[in-house]
Amino acid sequence: MGNVQILLRQHVGAPCAPIVKAGDEVKKGTLIATPTGLGANIFSSVYGVVEEVLEDRIVIKPDAEQKDEFVPIEEGSKLDMVKAAGVVGMGGAGFPTGVKIGTDLNGGYVLVNAAECEPGLRHNMVQLEEQTDITIRGLKYCMEICNASKGIIAIKKKNEKAVEILRKAIKEEENLTIHLLPDIYPMGEERAVVRECLGILLDPTQLPSAANAVVINCETLLRIAEAIEMRKPCFSKHLTVIGKLNGGNEPHVYLDVPVGTSVGDLIERAGGIEEPYGEIIMGGPFTGKSTTLDAPITKTTGGIIVTIEFPDLHGANVGLLVCACGGSGERMYELAEKMNGKVVSIAACKQAVSPKEGAPLKCENPGNCPGQAQKCLQFKKDKAEYIIIGNCSDCSNTVMGSAPKMKLKTFHQTDHVMRTIGHALYRRLTVSKQVDQLPNGK
Start and end of every RnfC Barrel sandwich hybrid domain (predicted)? Predict the structure, then answer.
């Protein structure tokens, strides 16, 4: 293992302030940075020595031998232990969990986001299959802390093995149920989980608390249980490595990877890159960002993807359709550049709105999109030959209903990933949105 680089910003809020200096010896679970406002404690994930304290990270040289033991957090109330452990939303959002679950729901709902919506990622399902009991206990702790009367696990129906294991695990639990989701993107979006489970469509500005609920990623539940039962700080991450790797494109799932481990170390662990390749993505195909081999993983990293090479558009004119459910405008421009396209037009999805000036786009109704013919007409008027889209399953379907008629060739921002992992391209939605529930909600 090379040096571990632990970023000081791994969550919503301001960067944490370091409380160690170069030369300090640290152990797994040593507190090394604390919040300066909204945030979460950050811990060393290894035994070693602090080499550098930089503006944005703490660099630790790991010892040759690593022990399993860790420095425990102090005992306290369940909520205080979650806060002390530095648990954040492990699905990618990174909101401090102690803040999220520190509200009284007065008998409301804890909704478990087990959608694992990004194609190719598998670590959530492996957790649910192999660490079922502790995940369920984490859900119960959440319900107790939030004063929720019901827990609902939202999971895609296609994950039959995990669904069956969960069904057996909760069969005696009157207050726990399963809600089956269709296999479309983005069923894991927070407001989509609320809509699917509770039948309530929140405005883009509303939080799940407006529906008397909190939404918790399934790995976050595991870390909550570890904090309460084991007094374990949050310093490790479940993730998936997949793509153009020596040995094939099957997903490699790694549990409890030390935060701060480099992307390159994990890729080598998975067999190494099969040259040539296109790019490396940290995160999922839709919302991930391009990264480098020396970049460190954080508490919110879910995937590392090595892709095939990009197609060459030879300078052709390109229109960009930016969707709140996919890449940002910056990411879309990056993809156009990597495909050697010339951007001549840009538009936002019909349902993408910004809750306030400068804020990221939010979808008015995630996964249920209107037609995009007007946007395609704009691209045609602006003399685009190609469109690059980053839309959800449904919205991609509506684009494909109009773009070919205008002789506009379409690429989805995930195409190079889907081709790499052997997944169907996002074009025409063929999966039914209606999903039958298990008997009695179980």
Answer: 4-56
